[in-house]
Each structure stands twice: as structure tokens, then as C-alpha cells.
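tool_call: predict_structure(chain=1)
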Amino acid sequence: MDPEAGSITRESRRKFYKATLCLAYQSFGVVYGDLSSSPIYVYKSTFSGRLRLHEEDDEILGVLSLVFWTLTLIPLCKYIIFVLGADDNGEGGTFALYSLLCRRAKLGLLSVSNAPDDDISVYDNGSPRKETVASSILKEFFDKYRSSRTVLLLLVLLGTSMVIGDGILTPSMSVLSAVNGIKVKAPSLHGNYTVFVACVILVGLFALQHFGTRSVGFLFAPILLAWLFCISTVGVYNTIYWNPHVVRALSPYYAYNFFKKSGKDGWSSLGGIVLCITGAEAMFADLGHFSQLSIRLAFTVVVYPCLILAYMGEAAYLSKNKEDLQRSFYKAIPEVVFWPVFIIATLATMVGSQAIITATFSIISQCRALKCFPRVKVIHTSNHIHGQIYIPEANWMLMILCLAVVIGYRDTDKIGNAYGLAVITVMLVTTCLMFLVVVMVWKTNILGALAFVIVFGSVELLYFSACMTKVNKGGWFPLTLSLIVLSTMYAWHYGTIKKQAYESNNKVSLDMLLRMGPKLGINRVPGIGLIYSNVATGAPPMFAHFVTNFPAFHRILIFVTVQSLTVPKVPVNQRFVISRIGPPEFRLFQCVARYGYKDQRKNSHDFENHLIETMTEFLQRGNNDSEAIGWEPVNQQQSSPLDDVTGSSLESGVNTISGKKTVRFRGVDCSKELEDLKEARESGLAYMMGSTCVLACDTSSYLKKFAINFVYGFLRQNCRHPSTALGIPHTSRIEVGMIYRV
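tool_result:
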């Protein structure tokens, strides 16, 4: 073996381990705060209802048994072992699962038919897996009943809206619960003071977000590690001091005995127990910020054992001090360390809020890229981890809603009811999507997929049914909020596809436009014109509208179609797909700019440079024989209305490939084209795009008019302008106004 190769391997392995440990360390400050701060309020919320009538050892040990097995089944088994393995090339979350189904099983409404991603090498998964009977049946079902795809999209949007709801309820619940701990030492303190302090902490938390995940992670990680050390140490102390026999509650018999003795009241209390797994979904949603190994390592080695010890110690204290059930967490802290633990607890709840805030940013970014969320500003805060982002509009909106929840509710029990319903709904959606991924993407045995759904789905349904009984006690908030967010996202998506359908149906054949050239008196002016279009073939309606009213355009014309693919990232060398339209003398080109839902869209200067470089490479590859894939061939006997082009430049051979026509031209002077491109670049670039007003037809239903004219219209007017989102400079922009009747 080559010693030099061995040293390189060892060095790369050492770098990998170092990077993994560094990411695992950062994940404490971003991913696990929510999950780790739940001991503050789980027992209080569980015993806040009718379970107060059953404050006996069997009930306390039964709750501990349920907490232990819930933590073991859902975060450890479901997420750490299975769900993290269903990443979309490193990205996690509800939309990542949907992206897999769109791309690999062709189930989505979001994957545009003219936006192929199969040729992107980084997503080449080798030879396709063999279809199973179950995958074939499901595929046939989705092909036969197209409405099932809409239902699937609505299910994904429901999970997404609940994650956004979590982003509001988690900071409110965590921070207010921690601050309320001061009442243990000052029982007469008025509730207004604790609410005020909680609001100040929340404002500070959201003000820190613009520093980015990396900075926040390094800042918060020591706090959470100190918190985990505190609760585990206190847990061990309480277990030994108060009741070492609580270890027996790890047996599932005590969970069974709990339901046997408490009956319906025990089932109703599950809405409080489910709070022990809040933040489990963040492990998957935040996957793009870290890695599978780092998240698995941090949870199994540190977080999971510390949480079990904390819950065990609190149960041991309660078994001997049943009168303290409503203040159990802080009452269980030894007097000598109360204030240090209280301060760390308050800081830890800020860390807990960070997990879901980060997940909310990730999922909003994915929705935006896949045309299910209005355009917002996405700031990438890391040059190394592309998933680390910050969204200012979402950040401040979350802060305002968090403050409204804290001021409006004031009661952590009611916030807990809302919180539990939002958490378990997201988990149910993930379980349903995982079933489809296992069967249709992984193509494994149907029995394995059914076992996954039966084991985890039955547990989650049990918790979901208990949470639904508390809708009138605060659970209405996440339902109302998710309905508003879901309706907004679906209205945006519906309006977007209607707008694109109008442009596709009303596109203008370039052949017809060229034939009209002499009548219109079209002139060519120096420079490069970039015509932004949503259609990959034909001229968009706004371009035809422009030319008929102002018959002139640039010497080199490039029709640019920006496509968002259902993949996380597109390699830079595969970003642009260039093809020629018509004979070379026309200087007409088609450019498809492809972006993944996690790609950062750079400024116009970088875009221009990259596009011109790709154009230069395209022309240099042409040599003396140039092949163009056009929308339609120009008539062989017809002279060009754009330049002095004769029919002799067109070879007779025309081949049809994939619905497009491949035309080969002879005698193309490559150096002349490159010189023209250089001169045109020096003359400047102009960006042309439509400034459209989308309205429903007069014959449309009232529901469609409301969705298009009011909801979609309001969102378009108040979100970021397309030119801003694309980074188009104001001084080089040409906007063409049109009204679309869809």
C-alpha cells in the first residue's frame, strides 16, 4: 500500500470526524433545545386536568413509563433510525419527503413537466430499483385518480403549516414556562410581570436570528450542554434521595397499569405527555443545517440519556411530594442550586425556541422555491453549510405572533393544549409520507411499510385523539392558524399555476413572429436582451405584446426560463441549459436556468458572468457545424426578416427529438458569433419581464374570483417583486404590462 495514500486517507478521516463532532456540538444549540426543555412543563401539563383526581404512585409511575416509551419509540426509533434516512440529498422536513415523491415516484403537482432533473448528475441514484407489486398498485392509483395528488399536496401543506404553528407556540410555551418558575420563590408576584419578562426575552431571541445558525449554534450550545448536565445531575440526585424504585417504571407494565386505573382521565392526559417529544420533528427539519451522523450522535449519546434521568428524578420527587404537582420541576430542584438552575433554564428555553425557528426558516424557503409560498427574502448565513438561512419577514412575523400568544393566553396549560396538537399533527403527516417513500421510493416490502405505519402511527393517533378533545381549551389556535397558512399557500400555488397555464396556452410561435417581421418593421439594436419567460418553448405573451407596439429588440436575444426543480441543489456547471433558436444569423437563444429549492440565487452580476461564460462555451463547441434545438424551424425558402439570411444556410435535415426539432446548420462562423457576443456584452444587457395583473374570468365561480382576484392579488402586491427576487438591477429592467384572464 502506498504510504502517501494511507496518510491522505487518515487525514481525510480525521477531518471528517472533526467536522462531524463540530456539527454535533452546534446541533445542541439549534436542534435539541426544544426537546431538552420539555421537562419544565410535561408533568405540570399532564396533571393539570382531570388527572389531578389520580395523584397516586401508580399514576405518577405510569406517566414516567409513558414518557420513557414515547421518547424511545418516536424520537429514537422513528426519527433517529428511520426518518433521518429519508433525506433528500441532505435536506430534511415535510417538503423534502414530498420532493422525493415528486422526483422519484412522479406523484407531485409541483414538478413542472418541462423541468427535467434526471440529467443532473449529483442526483443520479444509479440503476432504478425494481418495481414491487405494492409500488405498482399505488402508482396506478395516483395516475388514475389525479385528485389524489391534490390531496397529497394539501396533506404536505397541512404539515408545513403546523410546523409554522410550532414556530409560534414553542417560544411562547418554553419561555413563559421558564419565567413562571420564579413564582416558586415569589408566589405573590403578579402574572403581568412574568408576561413582561417573557416578552422581553422573546424580542431578544428573535433579534439574534440575523447572526445566523452557526453563530447562534456556537453561542447556545454551551448553554444547552450546561442545562442537560444540570437536569441529569438533579435527576440522579432526586432518584437516589427520594425514591430509587422509580426505575421500575421503565417497564411497560406501568403504562398499562396507568390506563387501567385512570381510565378515560388517563387517556385525556396524553395531551400533556405528548409534550415530551416536542422538538423531535426539528431533528429532521433541521437536517440541512447539519448531517445525519452529527444529529444521531448528539441525541443517542447525550440528549436521550439526560432526558430519561431528568424525568426519572422528577417522578421520584413527586412520588413523595404530591402536593407540588403544579410546580414539580422547580420544586424538585435542591435549594442550594435553585437560582443557577433557574437562570440556565431561562436561557435553555431560548435555545429550545431556536430549534423550531430554524426549522421554520428551512421549510418556508423550500415552500417558496417550489411555488407554494409568496416570495420572501432568504439570506444565506454560511458559506459552508448551504442550508443555514435567515428570513427577515418570517422572523419578525413569528415574533409578533409569539408576543400575541403570550399576552393573549398567559396560561401555559392552554398554550400546551395548542402546542401538543400542532406537534402530533406534523408527526402524523411525516408518518403518512414515510409510508409512501418506503413503498414507492425505496421500493421495499409492503410488510415493512405497514409495520412502520402500524407501530408509530397507532401511537401518534392515540395522542392525536387526546389532543383533539382539548380544541376548546386552546387547541383551536393551531387549527385556525394552520387553516389560514394552508389556504394562503394553496392560493399562491393555485394562482401561480393558473398564471403559467395562461402563458403556456397563449405563447406566440416565433416562426409566426418572424414572418410578421417585415410588416412590423422590426429593428435590431446593440446589446443583449434577456427575456424572462415562464414558458420553455415559444415567445411569452408579453414579448409579442412588446414587439407589436415597439418593433425593436436587441442584436442578441436570449429567452430565459427560471425553473425551480424538486431537488435541493443544482451543480453550478449544470445550472444553464442553452439551445439555439432558428439559424445562427438570427442570434436567438433559449436558456433554462435551473435552481434547486435550497440554491442561493446570486446577484445579477454573477448571473450575467456565468451566463456569458456558458454562452461562450456553447458557441465554441459549435465549431463549423452548429446544431440548434429550436421551437420550430424557419421555412427553408424564406428570407429572414431579422438579418440578411438566406434559405441556403439551412440544411434540409430536420429531426424531431422529445417534441422539439433539431436543425443542423452549415458554415457557421464561430469566431464571428463570439465577436458579436463580446460586442453585445460591452453594449450592455437589458432584462425584460412581464408586469402582469392576473384576474379571474368573468364567467368564473365566486370562489375562484376570491382566490385569484383578492387572495392571490393581495399576496402578489405585498410580497417581493420578481425582479428583486431574481436580483435584476432596476436601471436595466424593462417591464411590459399585461392583464391575464385565467
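agent: The chain is about 60% helix and 10% strand. Proceeding to next step.
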